[in-house]
Every structure is written in structure tokens, then in C-alpha cells.
Design brief:
Shape: rod-shaped
Strand content: under 5%
Order of helices and strands: HHHHHHHHH
Distance between the termini: 73 Å
């Protein structure tokens, strides 16, 4: 399977998932909407205005969910989280109360409240899932688009010899005297003499050995 085929398959899967979540969210919203609108009418709200109350309650859930995903990782994300929690509590509680009030006498109140609490909870979960699915994923930076300096900056450079090591190199390869080495390294000639006095750094004269 080529990368292009996998990309097309991933897009189709995401599109199918988004369509399914939107369909489920619409059903959950409609069930919660009708229950909350009926509860508003029973509570004295005019029939021509009762439809606005479920829009306010469940609308907070939808808007706050989108804001939570958009502000993920920021300090201000606490506010949409608070609105999301408040909207979910109000919606679930109101749906449960409506079920207890409107249910038949033969149906236990706990069962009616549990069934009525499902639509607002599904609306909360499915809205969050829909936003996550439609949220763009940042594409990885290809290797070819990187600047040359970015690659060379990560390559470890070999250590540069300093001090006594430089003195040995200058004496072996360049034939410099102790004074020249001391002047080049900015140290006293006696310091260079002590360096070469050590057995590990003592360089024999080829003429003397000959």
C-alpha cells in the first residue's frame, strides 16, 4: 500500500467518523432539546419561548467543548472547562427531573432519570469527539525542507586539543622550541618545560637517538 493510498484511506475513515458523530450528536441534541423545552413549559415559560431554554443549556456544552479543544494547553482553558462542566450538570439534572415528572407511575423514577440522562451525556462526549476529529494535525517537517545549518548544528564536533596536547603537537610536527610554544599558548616557558619533563609528554630528539 502506497503512502498516497494510506492517506486517502485515512481521510475516508475520518470523514466517515465525523459524519457518524454529527448524526449521533444531532439525535442526542434533539432528545435533550424536546425534554428541556417541555420542562421549561411545565415550569411556567411561555410555549413560544420554551425552545430557547434548551438552546441555552445545550448550546453551552457545544460551544464550551469547541473552546476547550481550541485553547488546549493555555492558561485560559480553565474557563471553557468550567462552562462545560456547568452546562453538563444543568443539562443532565434537568433531563432527569423532566423524566421523573413526565414518566408514567409504573416506571421507577430512578430508571426514568437514568434514561433521560443519556442524551446530554452522549451530546457532551460526541461533540468533543467531533471537534477532535476535525482538528487539524500538524504535518511533520520533511527532511528535505530543513536548513543545512539545522543538520550540522546537531553533529558533535571533535574535541580540540588544548594546553599540553597542543604543545606536544607543535614540538613533534613543527619543531617549535619551548619559548615559541609558550608564546603561542600564552604561558611561561617554565610551564612548557614542566609539561615535557613528564614521562608521558617527553618527546625524544631523533638526532640524539640516531
Amino acid at each position: 500500500m502506497t503512502p498516497a493510498t494510506r492517506t486517502r484511506g485515512g481521510r475516508v475513515a475520518v470523514a466517515t467518523a465525523v459524519a457518524g458523530t454529527v448524526f449521533i450528536a444531532a439525535g442526542a441534541f434533539w432528545l435533550s432539546f424536546t425534554a428541556l423545552a417541555d420542562l421549561a413549559r411545565r415550569s411556567g415559560v411561555d410555549a413560544g419561548q420554551a425552545w430557547a431554554w434548551p438552546l441555552i443549556v445545550d448550546g453551552i456544552i457545544v460551544v464550551a467543548t469547541v473552546a476547550v479543544v481550541a485553547l488546549a494547553g493555555q492558561r485560559s482553558a480553565w474557563y471553557p472547562w468550567a462552562l462545560l462542566a456547568a452546562g453538563a450538570v444543568v443539562s443532565v439534572t434537568a433531563n432527569a427531573i423532566h423524566a421523573v415528572v413526565a414518566a408514567d407511575a409504573d416506571v421507577p423514577g430512578v430508571l426514568a432519570a437514568s434514561v433521560a440522562a443519556v442524551p446530554p451525556l452522549v451530546l457532551l462526549a460526541i461533540t468533543h469527539l467531533t471537534v477532535i476529529l476535525t482538528h487539524p494535525i500538524p504535518a511533520p517537517v520533511p527532511e528535505a525542507s530543513r536548513e543545512p545549518g539545522e543538520e550540522t548544528a546537531t553533529v558533535a564536533q571533535p574535541p580540540v586539543p588544548v594546553g599540553r596536547e597542543v604543545a606536544v603537537l607543535l614540538r613533534e610536527e613543527e619543531g617549535w622550541s619551548n619559548k615559541q610554544i609558550a608564546r603561542h599558548l600564552g604561558v611561561h616557558p617554565s610551564t612548557v618545560g614542566r609539561w615535557f619533563a613528564r614521562p608521558a609528554l617527553n618527546v625524544p630528539d631523533t638526532k640524539e637517538t640516531t
